[in-house]
């Protein structure tokens, strides 16, 4: 009996210590976001998820970022309770992980995840798609956008949504409103809120472009010296007509973001919003405008609470053909560029990759520490580690955030 009393006493003390030292308030004036972005978890049930998140909290995480959509070939959440399925969901399943009547609901994990996060005094942001919503395209193939085929010179159907179609916008607004009914703290627009250099040539877009600018969106007048290399087609340069088109597309993307934010704030005025930025948007603005229709100067005019920069150093290293030291220097300069344009460094959320996208292997703690040192040189920016799972080393989280 005495032993039982002692054990209960120790448990109570441990709980009090946890409350005093670990369960401290987050988002104070001098406390930036310290996030774990969860894209998948191999936990068998929600109890294992909760234990994993508690460990993240005690290692220094104050914010969870949870993917709440499922596109084809995305990894599924193995802990979710999939209706009418056995142990796991099929790989080609598409839909969302919250309740809505406007999209296929795979499983409602969001309710439990918000409870777990807030019980541990953590914020919870959700990562949500716009143009890459496979569930909507499968239901309505006619809602696909149109793009210019550099090989044939024809306008053909693409694989993303046509955001210039009013029906698409209304469906997305309805889905986002339902998302806002949950006790979440914010929403991050997934990196699909872009238009590639050959995308956006739907009839609706071309008509709107002519109405807004008095110019024609004619692909044959936009691309110079198209050439083929290893089976792919490229453009040597662009005409002034193309640049006008790209600038207009960037404004239309921001208009969509604004409409979605307004729809969400009808339900919950306090929700925060972040937008994913590609590294080119800061390191090569002209290329970002051409390739992605993403313009940072335009972004700053809209009411985003955070600018989420995908500073994935291994990806940058491979795509730019630079050495590690050169990448670290570029990361530091990139953060310097954005901090000069945003008045609060904590509104800048730098995403750091923990896994090599190609090899699927963990990146060493030493390398990650070099990345963190590089991005922190120019201000106390917010950070997100990507991806974090139940197997992520808690030591690197502690080193980064404590």
Can you walk through the features of this model?
By secondary structure, the protein is of the alpha/beta class. Helix 2 links the parallel strand 1 (34-38) and strand 2. It has helices at residues 2-21, 46-59, 110-119, 134-139, 166-180, 203-213, 240-267, 280-283, 285-292, 296-299, 313-320, 324-339, 365-376, 394-401, and strands at residues 34-38, 63-67, 69-70, 95-96, 123-128, 144-148, 155-161, 186-189, 223-229, 232-238, 272-278, 306-310, 348-353, 382-386. Residues 1-29 and 84-89 have low confidence and may be disordered. It contains 14 helices and 14 strands. It has one domain: Alpha-Beta Barrel (TIM Barrel). Helix 12 runs parallel beside helix 13 (365-376) and helix 13 runs parallel beside helix 14 (394-401).
Offer a concise description of the structure.
By secondary structure, this protein is of the alpha/beta class.
Structural key phrases:
two-stranded antiparallel ribbon, alpha/beta, disordered N terminus, TIM Barrel, 8-stranded parallel β-barrel, 402 residues, globular
- Strand fraction equals 15-25%
CATH class value: Alpha Beta
Q: What is the average of the pLDDT values?
A: 91
Strand order of the largest sheet: 1-2-5-8-11-12-13-14
């Amino acid at each position: 009996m005495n032993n039982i009393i002692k054990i209960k006493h120790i448990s109570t003390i441990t709980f009090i210590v946890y409350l005093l030292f670990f369960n401290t308030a987050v988002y104070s004036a001098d406390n930036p976001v310290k996030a774990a972005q969860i894209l998948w978890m191999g936990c068998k049930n929600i109890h294992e998820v909760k234990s994993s998140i508690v460990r993240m909290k005690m290692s220094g995480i104050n914010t969870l970022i949870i993917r709440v959509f499922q596109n084809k070939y995305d990894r599924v959440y193995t802990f979710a309770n999939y209706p009418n399925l056995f142990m796991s969901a099929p790989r080609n399943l598409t839909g969302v992980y919250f309740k809505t009547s406007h999209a296929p609901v795979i499983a409602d994990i969001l309710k439990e995840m918000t409870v777990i996060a807030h019980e541990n005094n953590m914020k919870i942001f959700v990562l949500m798609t716009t143009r890459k919503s496979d569930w909507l395209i499968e239901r309505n193939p006619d809602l696909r956008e149109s793009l210019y085929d550099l090989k044939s010179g024809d306008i053909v159907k693409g694989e993303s949504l046509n955001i210039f179609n009013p029906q698409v916008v209304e469906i997305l607004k309805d889905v986002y409103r339902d998302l806002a009914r949950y006790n979440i703290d914010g929403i991050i627009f997934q990196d699909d809120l872009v238009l590639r250099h050959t995308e956006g040539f739907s009839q609706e877009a071309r008509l709107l472009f002519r109405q807004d600018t008095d110019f024609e969106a004619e692909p044959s007048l936009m691309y110079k010296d198209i050439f083929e290399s290893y089976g792919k087609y490229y453009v040597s340069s662009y005409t002034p007509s193309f640049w006008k088109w790209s600038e207009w597309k960037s404004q239309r993307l921001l208009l969509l973001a604004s409409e979605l934010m307004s729809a969400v704030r009808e339900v919950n005025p306090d929700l925060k919003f972040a937008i994913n930025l590609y590294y080119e948007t800061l390191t090569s603005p002209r290329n970002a405008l051409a390739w992605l229709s993403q313009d940072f100067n335009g972004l700053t005019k809209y009411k985003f609470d955070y600018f989420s920069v995908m500073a994935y150093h291994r990806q940058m290293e491979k795509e730019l053909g630079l050495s590690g030291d050169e990448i670290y220097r570029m990361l530091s300069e990139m953060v310097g560029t954005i901090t000069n344009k945003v008045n609060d460094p904590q509104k800048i959320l730098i995403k750091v990759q923990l896994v090599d996208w190609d090899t699927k292997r963990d990146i060493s703690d030493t390398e990650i520490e070099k990345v963190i040192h590089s991005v922190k040189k120019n201000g106390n920016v917010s950070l997100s580690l990507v991806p974090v799972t139940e197997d992520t080393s808690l030591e690197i989280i502690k080193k980064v955030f404590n």
